[in-house]
Amino acid sequence: MEDAKKLEEGTLGSGKELVKEYQKQYSKDIVTTTNTHSHDHEVVNKIERGDVIEQKDQNELKMTEGGIVVQNVEGEAITMRVPKINDAVKKIILRTLKLLFWGILLQGGYSHAPSDLIYGVDMKQIRWCGILQRIALVYLVVALIETFTTKGRPTAIDSRPVSIFTAYRWQWIGGFISFLIYMITTFALYVPDWSFIDETERYTVKCGMRGHFGTACNAVGYVDRQVWGVNHLYSQPVWIRLKACTLSSPSGGPLREGAPIWCRAPFEPEGLLSSISAILSGTIGIHYGHILVHFKGHSERLKQWMSMGFGLLIIAIILHFTDAIPINKQLYSFSYVCFTAGAAGIVFSGLYILIDVWGFRTPFLFLEWIGMNAMLVFVLGAQGILAAFVNGWYYGTPDKSLVNWIQEHVFINVWHSERLGSLLYVIFAEITFWGIVAGILHKLRIYWKL
Prior knowledge:
About 55% of the residues lie in helices and about 5% in strands.
């Protein structure tokens, strides 16, 4: 093959011709064929290894992590991606397993931070689900679809409104399948009576219905009880704070007299069926990212984000106020998906205008820093691991620690309100603190990467 020799010597031609020749001559089939000359193998192996091949006519062919970049003498850059799907799949699976590990460790019951200075969990009561496990499932599905459909996507999107949807049709098909699974299961699955044990007493919840979006007899909870077992669900669900359960509502407190039986029951807010519904949220989220990639003008991007954001919000409001599908975070209902995804698109557009269009980046740098070290902030901050470490150094009794003193004396007592004081503590103590820490770590180039 004479052109292989020309490729190495730099006499093949312009950058565009190099790309065309590589596409035609140096595919995987040629690399594996037995009829290829040894010299051609050497050139192709250089490309496979990522070696830089200098061109004598000042054209440059070099490898990047994502593919080949050819730059000609006119300064025109041409990128041709040669994705290594097997390597990408391995990274996706490994990252998913890491998320599952940290999720079970932090939210499975092993860690009692920050309030209790103990650790350990009874395997008969371990919680298998959590927010990181949900993220792991959504990431696995969305990332695999993105990886396997890379070669079949067009590199350019035309001006038609539906073009970006058709270009990423497999992502939307995946999101639609998750939507169908959730909706069909929610409305078609029969939920029978079920029982649970609270301390030493057994309680029975009467159901016998389908398509219920209430607290006790929904299909989301039934699926989790069947898959994981009632003992492995979250024991303190948020609706224990409802008025029907406690006089302290909306805060937690002792159960009121005559409270429904389901107030005592466990429920998994990050369960299997609700996490399948969250795949649609991931699909919409990556769609916002695709808009950022393919549309270069500010107005084009904002038009795409805002139109979809407001459209999803309108759908959510209609579904909720017509009682068709109420907005319910615990069930991760379709209306909740639309509401949160729509709000995310609008908020993202607002931040984009402030930061990218108007240039007000400095006031929001702390958000950027936190995002660069999101896993570290979640583990040490949101899960209270650092606070538990600080609470381990107390004076007299465990409640007399630095963290508790700041929260009580600087915020709650000053404002004479536990709710307001706790909110201000989160905003001005925790978020500010972790923004500063993340900024310092960014300055030192220290990141927690999965």
